[in-house]
Design brief:
Low-confidence stretches: none
Number of strands: 2
């Protein structure tokens, strides 16, 4: 029994790949933190020295927008000012 390498055309078309073609369309929405948690996080970020015009300097490559980041439950402050919020943390 011999193994045959797929042709270039088959590889470009994605034939035989394990990943579904439109996997991102069915991705679940990110879990949102409660409004009070987001407001408290944003208040901490406003006075933080790492805040640069509404963006955090510590969020590595993309310098995430603070207003969006504080609303996501799974995010946490890279400086340790606030933690992730999970539904069990009520």
């Amino acid at each position: 029994m011999s193994y045959q390498i797929p042709s270039l055309r088959a590889r470009r078309s994605g034939a035989g790949t394990a990943r579904p073609r439109f996997a991102t369309l069915n991705a679940p929405a990110p879990l949102a933190a409660p409004e009070i948690v987001a407001a408290l996080r944003e208040a901490v970020c406003e006075v933080c020295p790492n805040n640069s015009h509404g963006r955090c300097r510590l969020f590595a490559c993309c310098q995430k927008d603070i207003a969006t980041t504080v609303k996501m439950a799974t995010q946490q402050c890279p400086a340790g000012h606030w933690k992730r919020w999970l539904p069990s943390d009520k």
